[in-house]
Every structure is written in C-alpha cells, then in structure tokens.
Amino acid sequence: MDPVRVALLGCGTVGTEVVRLLHEQAADLTARIGAPLQLVGVAVRRPTRERGDLPVDPALFTTDALGLVKREDVDVVVEVVGGIEPSRTWLVEALRAGKSVVTANKALLAEDGPTLHAAAVDGHADLYYEASVAGAIPLLRPLRESLHGDRITRVTGIVNGTTNFILSAMDESGAGFSEALDEATVLGYAEADPTADVEGFDAAAKAAILASLAFHTRVRAADVYREGITEVSAADVASAKAMGCTIKLLCLAERSGDAVSVRVHPAMIPRTHPLASVGDAFNAVFVEAQAAGQLMFYGPGAGGAPTASAVLGDIVAVARNRLAGVRAASESAYADLRIRPIGEVTTRYHISLDVADRAGVLAAVAGVFADHGVSIATVHQSGRGNEAVLVIVTHRAPDAALAATVAELRGLDIVRSVASVLRVEGE
Ligand code: NDP
Ligand code: HSE
Predict the structure, then answer these.
(1) Which residues does the Swiss-Prot or TrEMBL record annotate as the active site (predicted)?
(2) Same structural domain for residues 74 and 125?
C-alpha cells in the first residue's frame, strides 16, 4: 500500500504535537485512511534546537521549507509556522502543484484567504484549516459542510482564550486588567508580547474566517471592526455585575438583509447567556441559523495537543480525498454580501460618566442623547461630594449616533470624563 507522504512546516507548540499524534496513532490512522501516513520532512528555523524525545528521525529536519514543499514525493503539506510570508509562498506553491494543504494559520487566511483558495482551484487540491479557529473545537467543518443547507443569521463567539482567561479572572476576583494580565502571563496563557490577543487582532482574524464561511462572502481581517480589552476596568466589571452581566471579548458576525457586519470588542452579556459561563481560557461559539435554531460549540481553543487534534482530523480528510481521487468543495463566496460599516450597526450601550453633581446636569446629559436620537433605558447615579458617577444604559441605537453622542458629551464642561463606553449584547 503506497503511503500518503506528509511534509510538516513548523515544529513548535503545535507541530511537535502533530508529530507525536502521527507517531502514536499511526496504526489507527492507517486503518481510518486506508493507507499509512509517512512523514517525509520537517521544516524548522533552527534544526539543532533541543526538541526532547520527539519521535522523529533527526535527518528529516531541514531549514529549506520551499525545497521540501517542491519535492515530488510530497502529497500533503501541513503548515504550522504562522505569519503571512513566507508561509503564503509555500502554500501557494504546494496547492498549485496539486498538493493538499492543512494549515492552522489564521493570520494568513484572514489576510489573503482568496489567494490560497484560488491556488487550490488551480491545482485541484484541498485546503483545510480547521485548527485556525477555536483550536480543537470542530467548528469550520460544521459551517463548511453540515450547515450548508441552512441560512446562518448570526455567529457570536469567544474565540480568544487569553482574553477570556483575563476577563474571567477580573470577574471572579475583582482584579484590574494589568493584574489579571500578569496572572495570565505567569500561568503561560499570555505570550510575552500579548498585543495580538489583548488588542483583539487574533480574534478579528478568526472572526473574518468564521464570517466568510457562515455568509458565503469574502471577509478579511481588515473588514472586521476591532477593539481590544485593555480599557476594560475593574469598575466596568463591577457595573456589569450589578446589571446581572459579565464582560466578554466577543466576535460577532451578523447578517441582516443583504449585508453582514463583523466585529470584535468587549461587551456586557447577561449571566444567563450561554457564553457567560465560558470561563478560563476556553472558547465557545454560538451559531444561530434559520432552520437549525441555536447551536453551541465549546472546548479548548488553543494549546499544542488540542490544536494538533484538529490538524490531524484535517490530515485524515485530505488523505482520504487523495486516495478517492476527489477534493472538497471550493471556497463558497457566491453571496458576496456588502460589509456593513460599524457606524450602521445597532446595539445597546453602557456609558459611565464622571460629572458635576448639581442642578441641570442630568437634564443636559439626557438632552445630548435625545439630540442624537439615542433613547435612554436606565440611569443610575452615585454621588461623590460635588461629583457623581452617572451610568446610562441605552436602548438599541446605531453606532454612529452613539459615537456622536459621546463626542458631544466629552465637550461639555459638566462632564469631567467619559470613563467607559461598552456595548451590551445578547438580550
Ligand atoms: P511556534 O512559534 O511554537 O512554532 C513555530 C514553528 O515554525 C517553529 O518550529 C519554528 O522553527 C518554525 N519556523 C518559524 N519560521 C520558520 C521558517 N522561516 N522556516 C521554517 N520553519 C520556521 O508556533 P505555534 O506552534 O504556536 O503556532 C503555529 C501556527 O498554529 C500559527 O499559525 C498559530 O497561529 C497557529 N495556532 C496556534 C495555536 C497554539 O495554541 N499555539 C492554536 C491555534 C492555532 P523552530 O522550532 O526552529 O523555532
Ligand atoms: N493566542 C490564542 C488564544 C491562541 O489565546 O486563544 C489560539 O489561537
């Protein structure tokens, strides 16, 4: 029986676990695929790096990833390096040459997925990327296959484990953002440079991938409205609690009419919402579809072994397709829906203002909301001598109207500061 020959690009956190699973599950994988998988090369940056007791022949290591991809005896290329270049060059080369590709590279897919999909069509090859969103959770295949008979209306997700750990810690202990980030760093959840996670870039890339699949429309990372969690304060978390809410970094992709909106930002959600109980570094994605109703996907969204599980699932799928002489359906972008700018998106808002505590202040503040057509749902005031904190929750309003309201409030001399503006979702 001819083996299916696999080239592995990258052997770090995810790659080492891919190697381990390929070795440990070899007999079962052979039975499931109908042919053995053979690892024929491993491209890394530092071939002499200590890699523990990894079950791989050291002679397979190379620094020439492109050379490995071009080898005639390679059937499947597995990319777990990350970044845009040189990964894009390697994968385009592989796909155009008819080699199936399995990748966990969310950054590349969200930046330039169409180029990869086009190369897959040119080479009549498979492109699978289950591990790129929400680690081990089977999510992209259900969107790409199981739900293809339905119309998805909304995808709401917690797709970044680091920020979910930080916000959960703030909620549980009352800690501030910096303190919770320090804890996440010590425990190994946050990277030395946490920017991609805490500023929402990682979640925005995943949101673009999810929205593209859910709405049959090309959505790139640049189309995603993005805010991170660095401005979320202990006071915001306490205020959310007082409202029966918790704060999560949400990815929200919604279809209304012939447009989609895709955004990533912190939001208050009721504690009764299914996503509110997703704690620690777990991920969860809530999918709403016309016929299916509400579906929830939950599990570990990162880590070497969980992510490698998703990679191996894809390897089995592409290997089976090769043996059967078929390939999976191409990119589905036929709907080509308009991307709705954030200003047109409507939601509810929680605004916290530091104001002077004297006659007419509340009326002046309420007047600014009224002038911009933003309807107030609740107001709560707590006094501090001559100063007060006003917490206002609005009914649904367009983001542009709320932004104009906040800009005008900042200009009032009775408003000392706009302490925070948070969206309220899930009601
Ligand atoms: P790591 O940084 O741990 O590993 C990267 C690997 O790529 C290393 O083996 C490195 O070599 C190799 N590499 C880097 N540059 C080159 C190059 N120019 N040529 C050849 N090899 C190179 O990354 P992760 O394993 O954490 O992530 C890999 C991918 O998986 C990324 O796209 C990431 O977004 C994605 N992902 C990661 C998850 C996780 O939990 N870690 C979860 C979901 C997705 P060397 O070992 O010599 O340094
Ligand atoms: N940094 C990411 C997270 C890893 O915290 O979820 C998984 O993509």
Answers:
(1) 206 (proton donor)
(2) yes
What are the average pLDDT values for consecutive 10-residue runs of the chain, which has 427 residues? Answer: 96 97 98 98 95 94 98 98 98 98 98 98 98 97 96 98 98 97 94 96 98 98 98 96 96 96 98 96 97 97 96 98 96 97 97 95 97 97 90 98 98 96 93
282 and 146 within one domain: yes
CA distance 276 to 158: 10
- Is 106 annotated to bind a ligand? Reply is yes
CA dist., res. 221 & res. 133, Å (int): 13
Catalytic residue among 70, 206, 241, 248: 206
| Ligand 1: residue whose CA is nearest its atom 2 | 12
Supply the pLDDT for residue 150.
Answer: 98
Return all residues near 205 (Cβ < 8 A) that are at least 6 apart: 106, 107, 109, 110, 111, 221
Pocket around ligand 2 at a 6 A CB cut-off: 135, 160-162, 197, 202, 301-302
How is the chain split among helix, strand and coil, in percent rounded to 5?
40, 25, 35
318 with 222, same domain: the answer is no
Q: What is the pLDDT of residue 1?
A: 82
What lies within 8 Å, CB to CB, of 172 at 6+ separation is: none
- Does the Cβ of 159 fall within 6 Å of ligand 1? no
Q: How far is the CA of 409 from the centre of ligand 1 (A)?
A: 46
Domain count, the chain: 3
Q: Same structural domain for residues 149 and 193?
A: yes
Asked which of 290, 324, 358 is the last residue of a domain, the reply is 324
**Residue 236 sits in which domain range?**
140-300
| Cα–Cα distance list, 4 to 7, 74, 76, 318, 320 (Å) | 10, 8, 7, 10, 9
How far apart CA 144 and CA 374 sit, in angstroms, is 39
Here the CATH number for the domain that contains residue 157 is: 3.30.360.10
Instruction: Say how far apart CA 58 and CA 312 lie, in whole Å.
Output: 22
In sequence order, the 6+-apart residues with CB closer than 8 A to the CB of 419 are 233, 235, 352, 353, 354, 389
Locate tokens 């590349």: which residue?
108
Query: Does residue 331 belong to any structural domain of this protein?
Result: no
In our burial notation (b when 16+ CB lie closer than 10 A, e otherwise), range 229-247 reads: bbebbbebbebbeebebbb
Dihedral, 322, 328, 331, 337 alpha carbons, nearest 10: -170
